[in-house]
Amino acid sequence: MKKLFFASLALFLVACGTRQSFIGIDPYTPTASSQVQNRSVIIANVSDQRAKKDVIAMIKDSKGNISEYVVSNTDIAGYFKTALVTELASRGVGVNGEGSDIVNVAINELNANLSGYEKDNMQANIKVTLTIQKDSGLITKNYADKQTKFQLIPTGSAFSPLIKSALDDMVKRVADGILQN
Fold first, then answer.
1. How would residue 15 be classed by pLDDT, with cut points 50, 70 and 90?
2. β-bridge pairing 55-60 and 66-72
3. Which of 71, 94, 96, 167 is deepest in the core (most CB within 10 A)?
4. With contact defined as beta carbons under 8 Å apart, do 57 and 74 qualify?
């Protein structure tokens, strides 16, 4: 009887524990048509400055307890750099050639959560710092974005399109920031 009790208790604790799921992010597709810019920049560094680089999202139950952690299979800084190079190239900007502008990007925050069944129950937040070293000095810009949507079924895979949308929108904003300065 004692063994059955402990076996039941162990099964209960395992079943009630927090789950972990993994998501991937599809490659970036630029939206800008090819334009000719007489400009070249060097993307020196894109760094992931988030405190927790492994967990990208959480699902909370009705009591606010975390029921699932979502981890990205994609290197976020690598994705952002590749997407930024692709976006700038699609706009006709020479990248990593002989440019006088040196660009650094820091991803300070990227997280998402899903809680409840109310309107816009899933949200993603992203904060990025863009630094451009020009001959005339240093330019620093901070960008932030919050995206929300309704998700009926709380699964980890539901985060992939929301995270991709937040990242892709931020790539476009950072590309705009580079071109405006």
1. very low
2. antiparallel
3. 167
4. no
Give the pLDDT score at 103: 95
> Rounded CA gap, 117 and 100, in Å?
50
pLDDT in tens, 58-89: 999 888 899 999 999 999 999 999 999 999 99
Residue 34: per-residue pLDDT = 66
141-174 CB burial, b ≥16 within 10 A, e <16: eebeeebeeebeebebebbbebbbebbbebbbbb
Phi and psi angles of residue 150, each rounded to the nearest 5 degrees, phi first? -95, 135
pLDDT at residue 74 in the model:
93
Contact 157, 24 (CB under 8 A): no
Residue corresponding to tokens 């476009």:
172
End-to-end Cα distance, the chain: 74
How far apart CA 145 and CA 127 sit, in angstroms, is 7
Residues 6+ apart with CB under 8 A from 94: 39, 40, 41
pTM of the model: 0.85
**Could you give the CA distance from residue 8 to residue 68 in angstroms, rounded to a whole number?**
22
Alpha helix (H) residue ranges in the chain: 2-16, 76-90, 159-180
> Between vectors from CA 82 to CA 50 and to CA 107, what angle results, nearest 5°?
15
